[in-house]
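Feature request, filed as a ticket because there's no other form

It would be nice if the structure record came with a short human-readable summary line next to the tokens. Right now we just get the raw output. Example of a typical job, pasted below so the devs can see what we mean:
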Amino acid sequence: MTNTSNKAENLLPFNVIAAAANGDTDAICAILKHYEGYIAKLSTRTLRDEDGNTYLYVDEEMRNRLKIRLIARTLAFNVA
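Raw output as currently delivered:
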């Protein structure tokens, strides 16, 4: 059973989404801030050295591509 009040606390307010869709830079920054952890998780890669040790790192190129895609999709979002 899930708690709906916790889900509601993690949602972005509609006015922030609407403002971002209309090009408000502060609202776009708020959306990027909201999703920064998820973007970092998606862009985390595993690196193995010659000794077999594994390291986790954030692929900055992938991170930037995901941010750009999020901005583009936000600006294309139709708020009716």
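Something like this underneath would help us a lot:
The longest helix spans residues 60-76.
Residues 20 and 28 are 5 Å apart (CA to CA).
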